[in-house]
Design goal:
Rossmann fold; disordered N terminus; phosphoglycolate phosphatase activity; PGP-like_dom2; Phosphoglycolate phosphatase-like HAD superfamily hydrolase; about 15% strand; alpha/beta; 2 domains; two-stranded antiparallel sheet; HAD-like_sf; hydrolase
Length: about 230
């Protein structure tokens, strides 16, 4: 249930983060992550133990270049770029191999929102083929008007990505729905409402500070929408 009693305005669109919001990322990322470091060791690009899974999970929502600076800070940029290539390769293969999952009720909730006339979008800091691959594998791609990724649009921040999405699609009123501080920042700096998803459990306790509403299950969104006030 929502934990803040903010008065919400009915949006014309909802913009969703992917990892930790729609997609249960660890169901794909953890096996791919371990394979990635096996490959880096085979290629003599990395020595030593694989960094803790928790470190990688704590970086979800960041741009990949920032993730590797935190996870393998002592490696060169060339190794970081090779890690980009391997992670994408392994995650795309993993979408076919592993039993990956969306969060409970995601597809049904998106369908309910679309049936109410809400325009649906994705804005993710991930790589293009990964973000679109997750949506296609889990059969939610047709529900979105567009899927935006930092990998495709080469944006420096999620603030820029969301601004570009809103400009390109003529959106003035939206809810930014996500689980990380980058989502809160992207919504607020673009003058929009932020719905913080408090169910993924990644990051620190203050990750969603500044959200207008916190939800603990994805399927709360249609009720929030129905109770929100129509824009004058």
């Amino acid at each position: 249930m929502e934990t803040t009693q903010a008065k919400l305005k009915k949006p014309e669109a909802m913009i969703f983060d992917m990892d930790g919001t729609l997609f249960k990322t660890e169901t794909l990322l953890i096996p791919a992550y371990h394979e990635l470091f096996d490959r880096l060791r085979e290629e003599k690009l990395y020595v030593g133990d694989t960094p803790p899974e928790e470190l990688m999970l704590s970086c979800l929502g960041m741009l990949l270049e920032d993730i590797w600076r935190k996870v393998i800070p002592d490696c060169s940029e060339a190794v970081h770029r090779r890690a980009d290539e391997l992670l994408l390769e392994l995650e795309l293969a993993g979408l076919k191999q592993y039993a990956t999952e969306l969060y409970p009720g995601v597809k049904e909730t998106l369908e309910q929102l679309r049936d109410r006339g809400v325009r649906l979008f994705v804005a993710s800091n991930g790589l293009e083929h990964y973000v679109k691959g997750v949506a296609e594998t889990h059969l939610i791609s047709p529900l979105f008007e567009a899927v935006y990724s930092a990998g495709e649009y080469l944006t420096a921040s999620k603030v820029d990505l969301v601004r570009l999405l809103m400009d390109n699609h003529g959106i003035s009123s939206a809810w930014m729905v996500g689980d990380r501080s980058s989502d809160v920042e992207a919504g607020k700096k673009n003058g929009q409402t932020v719905i913080g998803c408090a169910y993924a459990g990644f990051g620190q306790g203050q990750e969603l500070a500044g959200s207008d509403i916190l939800i603990t299950t994805f399927n709360e969104l249609p009720g929030l929408y129905d109770r929100s006030e129509s824009l004058e």
